[in-house]
Amino acid sequence: MYKRWFVQLYLLMLIISGCAVQNSLEYREIRYDIDLTKYNNRGLYLTTGDYSGEYVPIALVQSYCQSGLISADATHPRFEDDTYRSQPKSQLRTCKIEQLLDDIVEDAENKGANGIILLKIETDITINNGLEQEIIKITGLAIDRQK
Question: What is the CATH number of the domain that holds 65?
Answer without folding.
Answer: 3.30.110.70
